[in-house]
Amino acid sequence: MRERQNTRSSLFLIELILAILFFSLASAVCIQVFVKAHFMSQSARELTLGSGYASSAAEVLAHTDGSYEAVKELLPEALKKDGTIFFCYDRDGESCSQKEAVYYLNIEQTVSGSCRTAQIDFTDSEGGSLYRLTTKVPIARKAGLSE
């Protein structure tokens, strides 16, 4: 009679071990899915920030002469270094000092003929490009000038 009770308890233990194994595998898969979802959400948030700030900068460049002074008049948080206009943003996407910056928006401009080309890059603190926008703006000719 005792042998029969032993097989029942060992069968129950095997079933319990299999159930624990199944649930641990399922939880491992769920954790991986949640981690991937978190990184995708963060990436989408950075892309949204970058596209918004880059398009705002492109609008400012399109409606000004592109000089640092003109950009600073419309976007007071603008900074300048080595001919490049740039902006610093913290983790929440708010304007901040260069020391606290997590994201940067860099504007590099070149003039060729009657067109001004601006390369606008939204990067992280390591310099990895998160969003890039290239825009071309025609240079307005002043009235009364003849060629």
Descriptive overview:
The chain has helices at residues 2-62, 68-74; strands spanning 79-81, 84-89, 103-112, 115-124, 129-138. By secondary structure, it is α+β, with helices and mostly antiparallel strands. The model has no long low-confidence stretch (mean pLDDT 89).
- Fraction in helix: 40-55%
> Which consecutive residue ranges, at least 5 long each, have pLDDT under 50?
none
User: H/E series, N to C?
Assistant: HHEEEEE
Count of strand segments: 5
Distance between the termini: 113 Å
Mean pLDDT metric: 89
Order of adjacent strands in the largest pleated sheet: 1-2-3-4-5
Determine Rg (CA atoms, Å).
29 Å
The chain-level structural class is: alpha+beta
Q: Could you describe the largest sheet, including whether it forms a barrel? A: 5 strands, antiparallel
Q: Strand portion, in percent?
A: 25-35%
Counting DSSP H or I runs of 4 or more residues, the number of helices is 2
> Outline, from the CA principal axes?
rod-shaped
Organism: Blautia parvula
Transmembrane segments: 12-35
Keywords: Membrane, Transmembrane, Transmembrane helix
Protein name: Pilus assembly protein
